[in-house]
Amino acid sequence: MTSPVCRSCWTPLTETFCDLGLSPMANSYVAPEDLDRPEVFYPLHAYICTECLLVQLGEFETPEAIFSDYAYFSSYSTSWLEHARTYVEHVTRRFDIDSSTRVVEIASNDGYLLQYFARNGVPVLGIEPAANVAEVARDHGIETRVEFFGTKLAEKLVDEGRFADHLIGNNVLAHVPDLNDFVAGMKLLIAADGRITMEFPHLLRLIGETQFDTIYHEHFSYFSLHSVTRVFARHGLRLFDVEQVPTHGGSLRIYACHEDANRYAPSQRLEAVARSESDFGLDRPAGYRDFAPAVERVKRDLLSFLISARDRGERVIAYGAPAKGNTLLNYCGVGPELIECTVDRSPHKQGRHLPGTRLPIKAPEYIRQAKPDHVLILPWNLRDEIVRDLEYIGEWDAQFVIPIPDLETFSPGSGDQ
């Protein structure tokens, strides 16, 4: 069998970062009428490139098959909307964004972020490949192109005179199989004095807190500051700042510009984050080798808890139907015999079933009706928001369960969260 090659530098990938076995596409939720049909399971095997240190998966499905009709709508998370609003306030002040600034967002979803610029009279353009999601943005007055981004679309926009003064990409860089074409497209699209901001889960946090459930087929790559700097530099883009933000279990927000743009001086934060990665060992392949044993421990701990709860006759219901939850449950081999169902705020997921495990997805109100003994929070990165919303489970002495980085149980109002 031919070894896969690095999507950044084309080096053959020979070293395993984490092998999570076989799993279905994490966002391929199953409709009731399809429960008798087979699902396709793909290897969920992450490699570390020994040359550029980019962690990545092989490609098993095209972006068109994954993202053209998508079940994730950003606006159903109040904390994510707040994150978007504060981001817009922050960059508007920092870069004097006004009605003369052309703002473009790649993977703009349902307009969750661009709406805040538009309210201030800033001209915006969203680029979103999922037609069903883009339609929601358009309904809210956000101009949105239904296309995948890369050099082809960038050239088309440039020919139309639509350069970007401020180009945004939140949690999209990981979803790109042709990484070089994507970054080259951004280089083409930003104006001479333009800038890029991108957010993505920080690989240091993923490893340090055993966030293996962030690994799924829709995420082709997993970035450190070290690896993303090399990718951008290859295409004539220079990082001039970085911020550590709490979203998705700990993310980086990078700022980039043309390599010869004098307007943007490098921040000292770049050196600080790079040093923290080096201290952790992310500047050498050996720093990645302790991750797989830690993942196996999380699996053992969760299964032990769920089996013991079932043996005691206690009921467990999950909260959320995120892609990360599907990685966790499929890797651990958990199904309805251990967890009755899950609930989710999105009506686009309710009534369907989780891929692989086939857990039914109900509305959140079901928890109050069912009164389980335990609520397993699958989107643990939103734990504070969820714990506040479900504080009422304390009425019948139920407990919350957090599976990652270490199994944790606590009661509402206990102060542990």
UniProtKB/TrEMBL annotation:
The keyword DNA-binding does not apply. Keywords: Methyltransferase, Transferase. Residues 246-405 form the C-methyltransferase domain. Pfam families: Methyltransf_13, Methyltransf_14, Methyltransf_23. InterPro entries: Methyltransf_Zn-bd_dom_put (IPR013630), Methyltransf_Zn-bd_dom_put_sf (IPR038576), MeTrfase_14 (IPR013691), SAM-dependent_MTases_sf (IPR029063). One of its GO terms (molecular function) is methyltransferase activity. Residues 6-67 form the Methyltransferase putative zinc binding domain. The keyword Methyltransferase applies. One of its GO terms (biological process) is methylation. PANTHER family: BLL5978 PROTEIN, TRANS-ACONITATE 2-METHYLTRANSFERASE-RELATED. This is Methyltransferase domain-containing protein. It comes from Gordonia mangrovi.
